[in-house]
Amino acid sequence: MSYKEKIGELLDKAGIQINGTHPWDVQVHNDAFYKRVFSGGSLAVGESYMDGWWDVEDGTEMIARLLRSNVAEHVKSPAALWLLIKARLFNLQSTKRAFQVGEEHYDIGNDLYEKMLDPRMTYTCGYWRHGVKTLAEAQDAKLDLVCKKIGLKKGDRVLDIGGGWGSFAKFAAEKYGAEVVAITISKEQAALGRERTKGLPIEIRVQDYRDVSDGPYDHIVSLGMFEHVGYKNYRVYMEKARELLKPDGLFLLHTIGAARTTYATDPWIDKYIFPNGMLPSVAQIGESIDRLFIMEDWHNFSKDYDTTLMAWRDNFLAAWPELSQKYDERFKRMWLYYLMAAAATFRARQSQLWQIVLSPQGVEDGYESIR
């Protein structure tokens, strides 16, 4: 059986045809694609797309179908095996490696993120509920949801682990009168974040979470940063949060999560988008907070990330004529593949989006969930 026939059989299980007429059907331009993918797994799929070997009208639906049908289990992936071995042997998210993702992902260009994201530059899942129609509305709704869940009030001092470009810090300071310390591992994020929050009671630092020592804080939030912590550091992370939080404070953890426990990320994502990242599972988070925090609330709104990523994709494409003056065609295909593949993991329910509210000693009268 030829490589084309082997790949065709696997795609057929997912309801995908080679050069078919459905939006999710793959259009192959180079016959070397079949052997490359069969031998290289998901890394080869992504790289061959970057090289222009294939196209698809609806890539998110195509990849979601592949994920639902577990096609990857039938394709060799030496890169995935090697990444898993490294993750088990080494601490890929050690203090020395902590700033690598900042340099390789978040520092690639503020112009790209300004064009792709909402006006606040919120690089996490929006909250598409209660009549929300636009990306800007969804991100404001998410930030407001976070503030309400921790019971934020004027004068509260909040630590934002992750920080980004200061979107939460600015929202919390302007809308709720809070004082915020935001930490990030990206120099470019910090520089622009300081400009965008000038005149507000906000401090933005380039700092690893393990080095923060100026607690206690009334509350702690972490929006989309826990994906960079790594399973070997989950307990250390939670111990640091507990150390920095007041006994009656609340810690809100907003993170992408995996449907099952894993110890490494996809090799294409690791190589091109988020080096040394990994998604936590329910079990891993539960073990990390044991005897440190009471879990007050666990909110899953995974579907909203599919919608958010599609909005980012639309913004990216709309801005491409301008962005193309700086970024080349291969970067464009890499970025599009990242956005559609990420959305597909949520559509296939293999990735989750969780907001978890934690308290050091338990809310005395009970915590009331907010949606």
Overview of the structural elements:
This protein has about 375 residues and is an alpha/beta fold. It folds into 2 domains: about 70 residues, no CATH class; about 270 residues, Rossmann fold (3-Layer(aba) Sandwich), CATH 3.40.50.150. Helix content is about 45%, strand content about 15%. It has 14 helices and 9 strands. The strands form 2 sheets. The chain has a 7-stranded mixed sheet with strand order 5-4-3-6-7-9-8. β6, α10 and β7 form a beta-alpha-beta unit. α13 runs antiparallel to α14.
Topology:
Layout lengths: L2 H11 L13 E2 L4 H18 L3 E2 L3 H10 L9 H12 L10 H7 L3 H7 L18 H15 L7 E5 L5 H10 L2 E6 L2 H10 L5 E5 L10 E7 L10 H11 E14 L8 H6 L9 H8 L4 E7 L2 H21 L5 H19 L3 E9 L12
Parallel strand pairs: 3-4, 3-6, 4-5, 6-7
Antiparallel strand pairs: 1-2, 7-9, 8-9
Helix pairs in contact: 1-2, 2-14, 3-14, 6-13, 7-8, 10-12, 13-14
Structural class: alpha/beta
Text of the CATH class of the largest domain? Alpha Beta
- Gyration radius (Cα, Å) is 21 Å
User: How is the CATH topology of the largest domain named?
Assistant: Rossmann fold
Strand order of the largest sheet: 5-4-3-6-7-9-8
What value does the average pLDDT take?
92
Oligomer: single chain
Proportion of residues in helical segments: 40-55%
CATH architecture of the largest domain: 3-Layer(aba) Sandwich
Q: Mind describing the biggest β-sheet?
A: 7 strands, mixed
CATH level-four homologous superfamily name of the largest domain: Vaccinia Virus protein VP39
Q: Estimate what percentage of residues fall within beta strands.
A: 15-25%
Q: Detail the poorly predicted runs.
A: none
